[in-house]
Amino acid sequence: MTTAASNHPTGTASANPHKVSHISVFGEAIEFFDEAASNLELDPNIKRILTHPSRQVIISIPFQRDNGDFDVYTGYRVQYSFARGPAKGGVRYHPDVTLDEVTALAFWMTWKCAVVDLPFGGGKGGVTCDPRVLSKNELERLTRRYAAEIMEVIGPDKDVPAPDVGTTPQIMAWIMDTVSMHNRGYTPGVVTGKPLNVGGSRGRVEATGRGVMIAIQSALEKMGKKLQGQRVVIQGFGNVGSISALLLREHGAKIVGISDQYVGLQNPAGIDVESAIAYINAPENPRRSLEGFPGCDTLSNQQLLELPCDILVPAAIENQLTADNARKIKAQIIAEGANGPTTPAADGLFSQAGVTVIPDILANAGGVTVSYFEWVQDRMGYYWREREVNERLGEVLRENFDAVWNLAQNHKVTLRTAAYMLAIQRVVDSLTTRGIYA
Ligand code: NAD
Question: Within a domain: residue 237?
Answer without folding.
Answer: yes
